[in-house]
């Protein structure tokens, strides 16, 4: 549902962030490690540590605001 927006933002912020996708059905241990109980879930990492997240579908402008906030922090 949010994949097209995430893809567009990954291209827009290329070189400033990395985007990865996790199939929670195939990797339940990683999902549990980060407390993912609902999808879609976006976790923002800085220096290898989670710093923020979005749970549930959000419009592209909301995703962009969150990315900007994480990059500026």
From TrEMBL:
GO terms for molecular function: protein-disulfide reductase activity. The keyword tRNA processing does not apply. One of its GO terms (cellular component) is cytosol. Residues 1-68 form the Thioredoxin domain. Gene3D superfamilies: Glutaredoxin (3.40.30.10). Coiled coil: none annotated. Keywords: Disulfide bond, Electron transport, Redox-active center, Transport. CDD domains: TRX_family. GO terms for biological process: cell redox homeostasis. InterPro entries: Thioredoxin, Thioredoxin-like_sf, Thioredoxin_domain. It holds the Pfam family Thioredoxin. This is Thioredoxin 1. It comes from Geodia barretti (Barrett's horny sponge).
